[in-house]
Each structure stands twice: as structure tokens, then as C-alpha cells.
Amino acid sequence: MTHQDLLNAVEEFGSPLYVYDADKIKSQYKRLTDAFRSVDKLKIHYAVKALSNLSVLSLLNKLGAGMDTVSIQEVKLALEAGVLPQDIIYTPNGVSLEEIEEAAELGVKINIDNLSILEQFGTRHPAIPVCVRINPHVMAGGNTNISVGHIDSKFGISIHQLPHIKRIESNTGMIINGIHMHTGSDILDIDVFLYASEILFEAATHFENLEFIDFGSGFKVPYREGDIETNLEEMGEKLSKRFNKFCAERNKDLTLSFEPGKFLVSEAGKFLARVNAVKQTTSTVFAQIDSGFNHLIRPMLYGSRHEIANISNPEGRERFYSVVGYICETDTFGNNRRISEIREGDILSFGNAGAYCMTMSSNYNSRYRPAEVLMVYGKAHLIREREDFEDLIRRQKLIEMEA
């Protein structure tokens, strides 16, 4: 997407605005499948939580992806987008048995990460195959909030509790057809990931009815020019070789599964906001925009660094700005960033806004959520309307009472 494409989108649909590039999503999906082309049976389940718009889900499904879901609502979104139940895997954490049973009734693949729930589900539904999520006790991830494979994590069944899983399988007569792990997001050290994979391979030898092994995801994407990222091609070569060897040794024709979210959509997204004011203080020049962490929370929540560009004045003289929002508390997108001269009314573009931006947005300060646009073959398509005041009060009830 060119700067002019983005400016045209703001002109047509207003600001703030999320814009996604369908071509980039396609190229990321192809890069991932190419990295594992030596594997006979590969299944990519897109992590819906990253970006859950129906049009994006439909696009990825048309490319061949299934869906990785973490709530019954995401399951229903995937079905609404036209994804077949057998192409959806449901991997919740801390939900009720009733929600898991509801997902099972819809015909999707079930992934369980709790011994108690596993035993209850197996007792009540022994004929429904399930996958189990293993915690390999391997630390990976760029932030403690997104590192989920370590020993203190709430996710997964400890690898040391494998005998308990086998006991439940035997006692209930249930079928365990998949084994899964997810170490965390922003994986950089391939050797650490491969070490965790060896733990999963060893665990897989204990299950006779396996149909697939799911290695999660968490591939690191670049957030600025020259930024480090997961060497996907090297990982693909090494893990494919090991996976094929495992299948040959076990004489099993298994499916290799992944569940990427950020990798597929992060770089495809731009978040656009208009500069309301430029404010000079004794030490800082603030660029104040018509948005806040209610629309892009990651810099405040994770300390993530999103590239910020002034697409209205890209050739302007660079100056240092702190870009802040309109939320009534500390609300900073970037401190002392070198950006082309910013004028009131300019449009700023935030990179890597495809993942965990709209899906983590809120109505904090009673602000509206922005519209979403998908660029397909150079044409901008509105895929979610901007909220208005009616959306804020739609479910509220004003009761009569005396002061």
C-alpha cells in the first residue's frame, strides 16, 4: 500500500482507521507454507484472536487456512466466515466444561489443557477425539505477558503430568488424536523452539491414535527496518526434516500443524490517525492525535514499538516528537521519535497494526471504535463500519429512580 492509497482511504472513510493489505496476508501465508513444503501433510490454523474480522477470516480460509480459536465466540465467527468445522481447532484456557461441550457439538476439533476438564470431558464424551495441550516448561517469547510455555504458566498440562493424561485416557476410553504446545510469541532462538519440539515428539510416542502434532506459533515479525525476526526458512528446514523422520520411525502419516496469528497479519496492517494538535512544552514536542490506547494498546501494555510515519509530509525535515493520544491518562505511542515535520491535520501511519490492535480495542473514555478497511487489488473495501453513539448505548438501560 502506498502513502497515497492510505491517504485516499482516510479521505473516504475518516480517521482513525485500520487498513489491511490482502496482498501482504497472501504473501505471508505463502512464505509459511513454502518453508514447510517438504512436509506431506501441513495444516495452518490462523489464530483468530489476532484479527477477527469476517472478511480477513474468509480470505485466509480461501488461501487454505483453518482457524485456531480460543473462545466459543471465535468458533462461531469462523463458522460465519464459511470455515468448515473440521478446519477449526478450539484451544480455550480456563473455560467451563459447558463451553467446551458447546464447541464439540458444533463439530470442531477440541484441544484441552486441564487434567480435570480432560477427565470430565472424556467421561462424558469418550467417542469425541481430543487434542491435549502440553506445557513443555520452555521459556520463549518477547514479553512475560506473551511467554506461555514456562513452568509458572497457566497454560497447558505439565509434561511431567504425562502419566496422569495416560491414566485418564485409559480409564475413560477416550481418544487423544492430537498433541499441542505453544511456548510464546516473538520466538527468536530457533534452537530453543526445536528443543521444546523434541519434548513434544517424545510425548507423542505415548499416544497410539495421534493424527496431528501442533507446534503452536509465535514467529517474530520485524517492527522496523533491519529488525530481527524468526528465521522461518531455517526453522522450516530443520523442523520438517525432524518431523518427517519421526513419522517414518513411527510409521505414522501425521499432520504437522501451526497456528500463526501475528505472522500472517501484523505487517499487513496500518493504523491511521490525524494530528489534532502539536504542543510544545519546556522539554518535549507532543504530536496529539485523534486516537489513544483504546485503539492501539500494545505500546502501553507490552512496550511494543510501532513505526510511526507522517504520510502527509514524508519529505519534511525530520524532528523529534512524542506521539500521544487523547485518553485521559498516560497514553503514549512513542517517545522522542524522529519523524518528518508534523503539522496539525497531518495523517500519521502506525506500522504492524494488523495483529492485536482492533481485537484489543475498547470504548474507554466512551470513544468509538474505528472502521476497518481491506485493500484488495488496490481497491479499498469497508469491512467494518465506524461505531457511533447508538453503538455505545445499544445495550444500556436507563432506569427511573429518585435521587
UniProtKB/TrEMBL annotation:
Pyridoxal 5'-phosphate binds at residues 218, 356. It catalyses: meso-2,6-diaminopimelate + H(+) = L-lysine + CO2. InterPro entries: Ala_racemase/Decarboxylase_C, DAP_deCOOHase_LysA, De-COase2_C, De-COase2_N, De-COase2_pyr-phos_BS, Orn/DAP/Arg_de-COase, PLP-binding_barrel. Substrate binds at residues 298, 302, 329, 356. GO terms for biological process: lysine biosynthetic process via diaminopimelate. The modification N6-(pyridoxal phosphate)lysine is found at residue 49. It comes from the Bacteria. Its cofactor is pyridoxal 5'-phosphate. Keywords: Amino-acid biosynthesis, Decarboxylase, Lyase, Lysine biosynthesis, Pyridoxal phosphate. It holds the Pfam family Orn_Arg_deC_N. Its EC number is 4.1.1.20. The active site is at 328 (proton donor). Residues 18-354 form the Orn/DAP/Arg decarboxylase 2 C-terminal domain. Residues 23-266 form the Orn/DAP/Arg decarboxylase 2 N-terminal domain. Pathway: Amino-acid biosynthesis; L-lysine biosynthesis via DAP pathway; L-lysine from DL-2,6-diaminopimelate: step 1/1. PROSITE patterns: ODR_DC_2_1. Specifically catalyzes the decarboxylation of meso-diaminopimelate (meso-DAP) to L-lysine. NCBIfam families: lysA. Homodimer. This is Diaminopimelate decarboxylase. It comes from Aureitalea marina.
